Structure formats: structure tokens, C-alpha cells
Amino acid sequence: MSSSGLFSKFIDLFPSFLHSNRVFPIRPTPQTFNMPSAITEVKPVRVLVAGGSYGGLAMALNLLDLTKGKHPRFSGKDGVDDSQKVDVRIKIVDERDGYFHLIGTPLAFSSESYAAKFWVKYTDIPALNHPSISVAQGSVSKIDPAAKIATIIDHTTQETYEEKYDYFVAASGLRREKQVVPQELTREKYLEESRKQINGVCVGGGLKDGKGVVVIGGGAVGIEMASEIATLHPTQRVTLIHSRDHLLSSEPLPTEMAEVSLKALRETGVEVLLNKRVSSSIEQEEGKWVLKLNDGTERTAGYVIWAISKSNSTSGYLPKNTVDEEGLVRIHNNLHFEDTIPNPSYHFALGDIVKWSGIKRCGGAMHMGLLVATNLHQEILVKQGTLKAHKFLVLPVVEPMMALACGKSAISWSEAAGVAVGEDVEEMFFGGNLGWDICWNYLQLGKSFDEPKKNQAEIAKLEEKVNDLEVKENIVNQEVGVEA
Q: Which residues form the FAD/NAD(P)-binding domain (predicted)?
């Protein structure tokens, strides 16, 4: 936890006296001191961040860099500018007690070693060990934009408290169902949760007796779940059931992407049933499920994974006039809230919780974090009189793009590059562990603040891997000046 004390400037006054070695001393010349009537208090700027995943951490850490006079870590540049320094207190409020690598869930729920690796407690992350950053396990239940006060529920004590802020950042993302992402909020409970699912999908876990695993849902999550199980447990029978005539049917992707994904999935050993809907599923006993399909046939399974649930927004703590019918936050292209609340320029939103173009991905969330950090820093400097006008970074329209892991292979698509598939694509976008190393290194979570950061070449290479280099270039090229 960072100190919340106020820094004060003290002036020590030492009067000097004139002395002489003569027998008769000379009276010292009177000196007048204008004592200050009060000590000036320098209050740190309070930034409250709801959510500590990819976007929230990217915002907090890039803002920390900027307020210490450095270039943001996503730039890869060196140098310090003292005029840009600001005393801040960044508080992250997150339901979990640690950073969980969400896009690695298919691996975490198939392998105990990956499960243990993919959740790191916030107290064990070197990058967050700084007096200007604190993390509280809890959830924001509401905010008052006019008073700039948030109400927070402490997950340890279940007590509610109020937190005053100068700037607020909504980065709490979407809520997903069990089996797709962990539901537990502490590392210890999460490891128990993951172990139960691993026992269900792995050979020799005592739950299947050779009946196999059925994954229901042919979207990106279902494909990655099924392919990781088949790859890590090659003797296990894995079946994927999808209700439409092609995979990835809910995403704005070309038919070729679905066809290549189907071929790659079958090459991992997964049996794929298209145009089949599960009408009922009954667990007759532990490790024995009977699934009835819409064509009247039945399938048996030792374990069933439902990968079709719709993600829900976590924006319930925000005023209703800030979100659309799906609970997504309406923002300007500088990521300020729209002007439907008091103090909109003091409120930002980023990541999966915002209403914006493109497919929601962790790479996009991290780059939004950079934008919010930069623009929030600009707001502070203008309000403090350091700058005369803002120079905001703006978020461009983001075209659909996707990289999808499929066992040892991967498939990627963008309008510019088309469809690509192969192990080299997997290495580019996932690095053999569903992007764990890529995201950890891009955020530079393993480096304390004073350690040297990655250079421009290293950052550029990582940006290619998160599939956002073109987006980043568009952002930088659309930098605009806005009058204060």
C-alpha cells in the first residue's frame, strides 16, 4: 500500500549574527524575516482504477512512468523530463487478489503447472511495488461523478467504504461464466477450482472412464478449450458440438477463417459436430453425462464444458446514462466518458467495458491503457498550469482482427493480411503458452520501477505479437491538439 500522507515544504531559517574580536562588541544588524502564515500543502493527484487486468494495469503503469517524468513503457524510449512530473496516488481496485492471464484459461484449466503460473498475486508483482501505486481487493459498487466519490466493497472484510478521487478509470471488463474463466477471487481458491476442471479433462483423473470430454460451443473459447485438451491429453477423446453450420459464427470474420479453423481443430484430434444443438444434459452419476441432441441422438461424456455463455458487462456501478443497452460505456475517441455526467473529463473508460469498434482483445485493452494514461496525464498538466492546452491521443476505428490458438498451431486474420495458419503463427501471437510471456513482458510486470525498461526494438517486436502494431501506428498518427 502506498502512503497517503501529504508532503509539505518546510523552510528552515537560520539568522546570522555579526561578531567582532574587538573588546567592545558591535551590535548585530537587525534582520527581518517574513514567516509564512501557513505551510503550503501539496496534495497528490488521486487516480482510482476499477479493474486490474490487461487494460487497468497498462493504464496504471504507463501513467506511473509519465508522472515520474519518464516516457511511457509502451514507447520503449529513454529520458526524463522533470517538468512532466506529478505527485500521484494510483489505487487499483480489483475483485481478485492477483493478476490472472485470462486468455490463458484454456491452458490453466488443462494443466496444473500452467494454472499455478498464470495467477500472480499483486503483492508478488515487482512492477506494482512502488509507493505511488496501491491495490485493494474489492469491487466498486457505485460512483458519484459530481462529488468524485466511489463506494467500494472490501472483499476481505465485506465492509463498505467511500474513496475520494480526482480521476476515475473504468477498466473492469466483462464477466464470464464458470468453466470459461475462473470464478474464484483468491489464488488459493482458484487453484482448487482449476484442479477440479483439470481432473475432469485429463486422462487418469478418475472421472471419465474413457467416456471423453464434450465442449459445447464453436466460438473462439470453445475452439481453444477443445484444442488445448486434445493437445495436452492426446489419448483423451474430445468432441466439440456447435449449433451452426460453421465455427466462429458470432464473430465478424470471413468464411475462410472458419474453414481453416475447422481443419486445424480436426488435425489436433478433436471430433467436430456442426449443426447439432444440445437439447438436454444430465449427469447420471459422477463422471457420466448423457447429452441429447436436437436430431434425437445421444452422446455420452465423462466431462462437459459449456463454452457458449454470453459475456456480461460489469458496469453496474456506473450511472445508467453512461452505458448502452448492453452495459457498454459510451466514450469519446480520447476515452473520456461522453458528456452525460458531471465532470466527464475526469472520467475515463477502456478495454472490454467500452462501446467501440473491433473484436475485443487483450492487445486492444492494453493500448487503450496507454491512451488513457497519456490523456489523463495531459489533463493533470493543463489543470496544474504546466501546459496551456491538451494534446490528446485518439482511438481510431478498429477493424476486426483475430488470432486464435489451436493446439500447437494458430490461425490469424486481418483485413490487410488475410488468413494465416501454422506453428509460426502460434509462435508469433502466443509464444507456446497462450501469450503468457508476451503479455507479462509487454506490461513489464517483472521489472521494478527503477530497473531499465525494454527498448524500442523490443517493444516493437512485442507489439507485433499482440497483433496491434497497425492500430498503435494509427493512434500515434492521429495525435491531435485540443484547446483547454
A: 117-368
